Each structure stands twice: as C-alpha cells, then as structure tokens.
C-alpha cells in the first residue's frame, strides 16, 4: 500500500510540475524538497518571475475508506524548510474535517484520520495548512491548500432500483423477441477498478428466456410458447459487480412475465347436435334455448358470432350472441303450432369476429353444429274464424232480432266444445245478447242511430273442458238509418231585403239539414207553403241541388209601411217515408245604397235625415251635453257669488261687527279685533267719523242707552238697527249689517260664545296663560271678562 501511495505521489508531482495547484482560486504555493523557481500570478498585476523556496513536502494523497484498524490511519506529513528541528515551528490545519476527521501533529506535521471514512458519503476533503513561528505566532510561509481523496473499495452490491418488474410478450412469439430491459446500479466508484462493473445473468427462468449480460435486455429463448398451456412466468435476474469474478458482490430481482393472447384458436362446439324442446305457446321474440361454442382464447379473440345456416325451419328462428357469456341465444321469429309441425332441424355456424391472418393457414376459424327443436303440445284456447266481425242493423229493429254470428274452434287434439259470452266491460248497457252455444248475436234494446251510430264490444269464447282458456274477438255493429226526421233549414233563419230591391232579385240562398243518414245521400226540395203563395211578396226558387233562393216579387219595399216579413218555406226529403217540415224565415227591410250595400236596418233610422250617420249623431249629442254642463256650472257660480258679500273698505265699521279681507296674525296677533266690546255693552265707544265721505257739519256723538246686563241679544241687535236707521251721518249708499242669531227655540241651541254669559262665571280660564304665546289673545280676552265680573260684583 505504501509503494502504491508513493507512486501516486510521484505521478502527481511530475504532472503538476512540482507545484501544488489549489482547488480554490488562491496564489500557487511552492511545495518541494529542493528550492526551484515558480511562477506566481498576483491579482491585478502583470505576471513576473520570482525565485522562491519550496516550503512543503507531501508524503500521502489518499486515505482508504472503511479503515477498521485500531490506530488512526496515517495520511501524510507537512514540513517546511524553515523548520530546523529546534521546535520553533508550529503546524496548523483547517478546512473540511479538520479536528473532527483529520488531526495534525503541531510539531512534526504528521496528518492522521481519526475515524473510518465512506467514499460514497464524501469522496474527498479540501484542507489548508500553514507553518507559524511558535514565539512570534506569525506565519512563516503563506497558507497552502491541498486535497485528501478517499480511495474506493468494493463495499456496495448492485441494486435494482425499479424491481420487481412486470412485463408481457405475445404468445407464439419467435426466439429473441424483446421482453424487457432491467438495470442495476452500483454505488462504488466506476472510475477505480472493477467495483462498479456489473454483469447480468438468469438464475431462474431458463430455458424460456435469456438476458444480455451487459445490457440487461431479456428476450424469449423458446419459440411458440402457448398462453393456453402456460400463461405466467417468473424469472430471477442476478447482477454481480467485479465483472462477475469470484468475490464480487451480487444483487437479484424478480421479473413477472405474462404471455398475452393472440387469436390462434378457432371456436369449437363441444358436441355436434343440440336438442331443444319448445312449447307451441311460446310468444314471438322469446328465447327458446342456448348453445355455446368453446374458444380457449381470451378477450376479443374469444368473441364468437353465431349464424343460422339456411335450411329447414331456419326462417322461424333467429340467433344472437350473449355479450357476457358468448353463448348463442335462439329466439322465436314466428308462432309455432304443434298441430301443423312437431319438429324443426337446422344448422348453426360459430366463427370468430377478430381474425389473425398469421394463423389462418392452420385452418378455418369456424365450426358448425346441428340444432333439433321439438314442438310441445299445449292446451290452447279456442280460435275465432275472423280477427274482427263487422255487422249492420237498422235502427228501431225489434228486440231479439238476430243480426249475425261468431264462430270459434278448439284446434287441439281431442277438440272441446266452445261457449260464448259478451264481455260486460265493453257492453255495459247490454244492447245485445249472444247465444252461448251457437254464437248468434241479437238485439236486446231498441237502437237509435241518432243517439249511437256504432257499437264496439268484445265476445269471449272459452273451452268447455277448460273454462280458464279463453280467447277474445272484437265486434263492430253499424246502426243503419231509418227516415224518421224531417229536414230543416240550416242557419240563418233571418235575412234582409233592400228598400230599392227589384223583382226577381235573389236576396238569400238557403240549404237544409237532416238528422237522418241515407246510404245514397238525401235530396231536398223547397217550395212556399200554400197560404203564402197567394199574393206573395217573396217566393222560393228551388235550384235542385239541395239549395234554394229567396226571390223578391215586388218593385221596392218601404220600412214605414212594413219592416218585417215572415216567409214560410216547406222542405221535403227523398227517403221513405217522405218527411217534410215548414220553416219560417224572417225578412227585414233595410236602407241600402245604390250598390245594394245595407246602411241601416233599425226602425229609429227612418226618422233621421238622409245622409246623417251614427257617428255624427253621437258627436251632436256630445256637444249638447257639454253645453248643458257649462250652463249649469255658470248658474251655480252666479248663485254662489250673490251669497258672498265683500266689504272692500277696511275702515267701514257697523257697531262691533266688522268684515275685512286681510288675514290676521293668527293666535300670536295681540292687536286683532277685541270682541270684548260686543260682550260688554257698557264699554264707552269713541266717536268715529266716517272717512269715506265729508260731513257737512260736526255732529256730536250719539248717546246710546246702556244695555242691561241680562238683556237679550235680540233686543240689543234691534236697538242697534234702529240707531243706524235714524243716524244722520249714515252714508248715502246701501250698507248691509249682518247679525247672526238662532234664537232661544233652536234645537241645536246657539253655537256663539255671546250667549254664554250666564255660564262663564263658573269657568276658570287661567289655564290659557299656561298654553304659551299662541293662546295669549284668548287668555287676554277671557281674563278681561273675569276682571269685569269681579268689578261688577264689588
């Protein structure tokens, strides 16, 4: 080992020119046993040559991994030329693992590894070394960087990281068909020795499969491996390092290989003849049996298609494939009858849907089998001779009249008698009856075509030997018409004629309707009744096509003379017995224009001017109503204006009753009119001279008689009226003085506060002063009255 380390050191020195090149960008250091020249590159300066001494001596570059010795593993030795062996130089170590993995002798410079190393965990360590003066503690030489590499040993076996593996290959594949490639990984150093060189081999799975020792590709080793023989294979693969040599480490994995199916097998029937038994009563479309061909293939390669080979009875049956079981399901296409045919034989072919052309040379991929079907006899219900019976009967046919018959037979071997009866659900009203033995149908009630023209009900037939076996058939009975209703005029029953109509003019075409239904169609005739044929105003013209026209016989008609005409029309039908009816038509005389267009047919229109339309009349009436409304409104306003007397002069005073137009100040207006003077007649009135006229002479104020306290207001008012009448200063114009008084006899009594003098003494109005300034006027008014009453009492 020492010889190999020394050889490595020599190669390193020769390759690097005797210099230790640091891994990090630092200045190169001189490391040699003898002084030599070295090129130093200083940052930012032009390189120049400098002669220096080599200060380091390397003894070892590698350290073995997984070292298990009892002593620390020696790595190498550091030495400086400045170290004279006097103990004045101290060696220091720093970097990866310094102190924990690697240690240095400060005096001798020997480096040791103090624990076992794993290359797969860390392949190399970068360290820095320096020689320091032990006394001054100054570096004797610049710090230098070096690398210690961990030398690999074969301590890891190959591993299949993706195992176990699953693969597939088609069956019947040729030799060498690709299956799968496996890969093993070795954690050892692939650049050093053969520790990571892996070789593959098969430990289990031969002779079916083989593997390439270098690439790990698995291929088939045998031809025509059949999935139907063996489907699953388990192959054990080994990977060994050291190139497979003795002593190498190995790892294994399992590869599960499945042979996938190909269509290499045709379907085969397990037997050549299939026997089936089918009751004759089986419904159409029902499955009557199943057959199966066996195909050992899988999936879509085993899908089978079944077909009936044309032949005996093949048109009565059909076959389809059940998707889940791959069975052939035979179904009935037509009804079976044991009495007609008791057995059927045909062939069925089974073939694959998905063919593989590589295997068609082995033979046809289909097989054929025979199917024999036996029809079983079943006790069946009677069978009617017709699927539907249609009968006819005249209305009003006597009860009990036979109108038809039905027939049903038992077709089974040893036929039984049949009984008939009506299904009460379809003929609830029992209009018909049936003979239980003969099957004859008769009427049970009188029939009316105009009420019901057709009857539809069911007849049930059952076997006497087995009443539970029944069959049903529909009966359709049409009721034929008998001429019993007279014809009538179709609408309209009313028409119109113009006043200016001419003789021979057709004013209306009428037709007839008959509730009877004739098989050949009805023919109607029209004529006037005998009483109307004498001096007729109108006549009837028969057009011989079931219509007639109303024809005028006069030259013009007058609404003033006659507004309505009634025309009796006789209508006869052509059936037997002949039916007829008299229908009265109403003809109204109308005013028309020159083209015959009707303008008006109302009686009131006779008295209207010619040419005045209804719209014009409505407009005239509307104008009259508006004028009347204006007149009524004007009169009402005039009356209201007369009732209101407006006193325009603000200075006009009639005693204590004043009328003025200006608004007051409301409840807060303390300068408003004081009504206390009216309530207190003893107040001295000032002499107020009229300002609207100029007096001729100065008149002294009139002395008015005082009014007693309890004088009636009526007397007071009369006194004031007399004074005004004799007043010489009265104005020369009319003046109206109004005094409202209801009198003592009023039911509602007086609403004026003037008449409440007798009761005011009992009331206290001091609370009005507490209501605020809005009630100050009332408080002063009633407060003055209280002070007046108190003065009078004293």
TrEMBL record:
Membrane-crossing segments per the record: 606-637
Record domain Cadherin: where: 80-160, 161-269, 270-384, 385-489, 489-607
GO MF term list: beta-catenin binding; cadherin binding; calcium ion binding
Subcellular location: Cell membrane
GO cellular component annotations of the record: adherens junction; catenin complex
Keywords carried by this UniProt record: Calcium, Cell adhesion, Cell membrane, Cleavage on pair of basic residues, Glycoprotein, Membrane, Metal-binding, Phosphoprotein, Repeat, Signal, Transmembrane, Transmembrane helix
InterPro entries for this protein: Cadherin (IPR039808), Cadherin-like_dom (IPR002126), Cadherin-like_sf (IPR015919), Cadherin_CS (IPR020894), Cadherin_Y-type_LIR (IPR000233), Catenin-bd_sf (IPR027397)
Keyword Protein biosynthesis: no
Cleavable signal peptide: 1-25
Primary location: membrane
Membrane topology: Single-pass type I membrane protein
Gene Ontology process terms (BP): adherens junction organization; calcium-dependent cell-cell adhesion via plasma membrane cell adhesion molecules; cell migration; cell morphogenesis; cell-cell adhesion mediated by cadherin; cell-cell junction assembly; homophilic cell adhesion via plasma membrane adhesion molecules
Any single Pfam family the record assigns to this protein: CADH_Y-type_LIR
Annotated function: Cadherins are calcium-dependent cell adhesion proteins. They preferentially interact with themselves in a homophilic manner in connecting cells; cadherins may thus contribute to the sorting of heterogeneous cell types.
Protein name: Cadherin-12
Organism annotation: Equus caballus (Horse)
